[in-house]
Design goal:
The protein has 450 residues and is mostly beta strands. It is 5% helix and 29% strand. The strands form 5 sheets. Strands 5, 8, 9, 10, 11, 14, 15 and 16 form an 8-stranded antiparallel sheet that branches. The longest helix has 11 residues. 43% of the residues are buried. The N terminus is likely disordered. The protein binds calcium ion (4 copies).
Length: 450
């Protein structure tokens, strides 16, 4: 279906663009590309040292044919086999749960992703689609179980990176990132392919935690590898496996002592088979909304681009009773989404490619009768929709829809568009312009959060 076929609106005519965010700058060239590269660099640095082949899984090859080094190195200056003192057991009573089915919105503006789809083609990656995530503890470990929608339908395995973010001081900035960068393949706990990062310089989230910012080149996200340290002093620090009870559940465990024996924290979960770079947290700072793409067909940034094949969750409390005002805490209103990715299909159904057409237009006029005025909210949160009013002179006022989009079809002519809202400043406040026959005037708005 092509709603545009009767009248073609050329967007060349008048384009007002007020973009708050600048394009993401390149990160310093010295930073590695992803976790694989971090490991590759580490291994390169250690190449002169003795490595015991019997301790290592053989090197594997990724889809692009690039050799992926073995993820773990044995302790320096020793060929002794790794001896585990303690291995995680079964998860006991569940102490906290994140529900990514209930809170399943995608909102780039607050770093909340629900986009387990491939770039551009929007094919499902069920092995990246978080469902419910549970946590439990014992005296030694924190445990997390990440329930995925299904295996990867192409490979029949779980192929993503799987992670947990911990915010110990509950200020919205994650402090630790537990990350399985080699997906577990067995139901036995394995310490290989798991890493624990921390953010020592408190720049995860950039200027504003969770909220999208224009990136600064010095930001380095989770830059510090806490475990496995080199030399490896504790081979029991972090673990991953597939649940023995459910082939689509990834379980992670990390020693409580490695994250400072906290008595409480906020936590959330991640899947990622695209960026896989701890030093780019948070992703909505290192990429703009336009670069990231959107899973919502009505969004101007549809389809998915740089930020694809990933899922993240809101945060839940462990060890304390949340007030509901904690940054990133799971709230119905924050993440409810009315739009869904077009290609969400049941397993076994081949997704189709959704044409890149706006869904809001119903155009029945003959050519040259109408012009279009459209507006997009940048760094958008759907909860703001009802409090933001955009008024077009002589044509009344509208609220943005859940994806931050609204439009009018009007006779060609001169107009003034004004923005008003109850809580946040919306910029630009007022713009006057002329829109010609069959042209579109497009206004990008930014939300100024005090
Ligand atoms: Ca999600
Ligand atoms: Ca999900
Ligand atoms: Ca930020
Ligand atoms: Ca950092």
């Amino acid at each position: 279906m092509h709603p545009k076929k009767n009248v073609r609106f050329a967007r060349l005519g008048i384009v007002f663009t007020f973009v708050l965010m600048l394009s993401a700058c390149n990160i310093p060239g010295t930073l590695p590309q992803n976790v694989d590269d971090i490991v590759a660099q580490t291994l390169t640095a250690m190449s002169a040292q003795s490595v015991t082949p019997t301790l290592e899984a053989p090197a594997t090859t990724d889809a692009a044919g690039t050799e992926i080094p073995t993820p773990m190195t044995p302790p320096e200056n020793t060929t002794a086999p790794v001896v585990h003192v303690i291995i995680p057991g079964e998860m006991q009573a569940i102490e906290s749960t994140v529900d990514d089915l209930l809170y399943n919105g995608d909102d780039f503006s607050i770093n909340l992703f629900e986009r387990p789809f491939t770039q551009t083609l929007m094919e499902n990656r069920f092995d990246l689609d978080l469902q419910k995530i549970a946590m439990s503890t014992d005296n030694t470990f924190f445990y997390f179980s990440l329930d995925l929608k299904d295996v990867n339908l192409n490979t029949k395995t779980l192929d993503g990176n799987y992670g947990i973010e911990l915010d110990l001081d509950k200020n919205g900035r994650g402090d630790y990132l537990l990350w399985a960068y080699q997906p577990p393949t067995t139901t036995s706990w394995d310490y290989l392919g798991v890493v624990l990062f921390s953010d020592q310089n408190e720049d995860v989230g950039g200027t504003r935690a969770l909220v999208s910012d224009a990136v600064k080149p010095e930001w380095n996200g989770y830059e510090t590898e806490v475990w496995p340290s080199k030399p490896l002093t504790d081979p029991d620090g972090a673990w991953a496996r597939i649940s023995p009870k459910d082939a689509t559940v990834v379980q992670l465990a990390v020693k409580r002592s490695l994250v400072g024996n906290p008595a409480s924290f906020l936590w959330s979960a991640w899947t990622d088979d695209q960026i896989k770079a701890s030093y780019k947290f948070e992703y909505n700072d290192f990429y703009t909304a336009a670069e990231a793409g959107s899973p919502y067909a009505a969004n101007p940034n549809y389809p998915l681009k740089a930020l694809s094949q990933m899922d993240s969750t809101c945060r839940e409390a462990w060890g304390f009773k949340p007030t509901g005002n904690e940054p990133g805490i799971c709230k119905k209103a924050v993440v409810q989404a009315t739009a869904k990715p077009k290609t969400t299909t049941k397993p076994g159904v081949t997704p189709t490619i959704t044409p890149l057409v706006p869904t809001k237009q119903v155009i029945t006029a003959t050519p040259c009768d109408l012009a279009q005025v459209e507006a997009s909210m940048l760094a958008w949160n759907p909860v703001w929709a009802s409090s933001i009013s955009i008024c077009l002179s002589g044509n009344g006022c509208k609220n943005p829809d859940a994806s931050g989009y609204l439009n009018w079809l009007v006779p060609p002519g001169a107009y003034t568009i004004t923005a008003s809202q109850a809580v946040y400043r919306v910029l630009p406040e007022s713009v006057s312009f002329t829109v010609d026959c069959n042209n579109t005037a497009h206004i990008d708005y930014s939300i100024d959060i005090p």
